[in-house]
Amino acid sequence: MNENSVVAKKKFGQNFLKDESVLHKIIQSKPKNDNKIVEIGPGLGDLTKYLVDVGSVEAFEVDTDLCKILQEKFKKEINTKQLHLNCGDVLNAWQSSSEGNLIDEPYDLVANLPYYIATNIILKALADTMCKNILVMTQLEVAEKFCAEAGEKVFGSLGIITQSVGTAKIVVKVPPTAFEPPPKIDSAVFLIQKDKDRSDKDFEDMLRVAFMQPRKTLMKNLSSKYEKAKLQEVFQELGLTLTIRPHQVNTKDYHQLYKKI
Ligand code: SAM
Fold this sequence. Notes:
The protein has 261 residues and is α/β, with parallel strands linked by helices.
């Protein structure tokens, strides 16, 4: 098999990024540092060829057909150890790692992610203490959730977990025509710069309860698990109205709420 005879496999979320201007934008947006670069799903190597020029790359590709093509295409970089290619499922690699670290040195995740597991991968990267920055392409809808600010309709657990560890911003929105084959939806590249470790599991459990029914009031959602009288006291202390909706409360107040209830 060679590159020209590759047929994209839907089950692996294969949409190859062909727009050179978007590839350049990704490389320009990468924070300048000496961290290892982790690429999940190098595919045909269109992004990889730029990444190996700016750093040392650890790549994970699940598709064995693509792995063979990449081994051939990047023979030189593999020999010089500028690229290390892991042929297998990145989620298994994370699962089998100790402490939830994908690799055991500081790294930046830079990738055009497989969309069917993009949210899962980003949550794992946010929890991975070795991961310092996340620069990824996902569906626009997912990117907007990770980059949302309090008050926006799409502000929810993903935005709060992200703001609890750092800052996030959309770098560029990308139309379907940038890919081969084109996906059905718009995409976006976004950057999360981490400056703290991920919040604890109990905090995230509270968020799940808070957003259980996103259009209901925060009080209604939280009182399904926490004592109402205590909630009323804490809401008053924090200046939160009893009718406030979950997306209207900012990350700082969620942390205060968590501490107090
Ligand atoms: N980076 C390439 C590009 O930009 O053209 C390909 C991106 S494509 C959206 C996603 C890639 O992730 C595919 O190469 C696919 O085979 C790979 N992939 C899907 N699931 C994976 C998994 N569980 N572990 C590692 N790679 C995976």
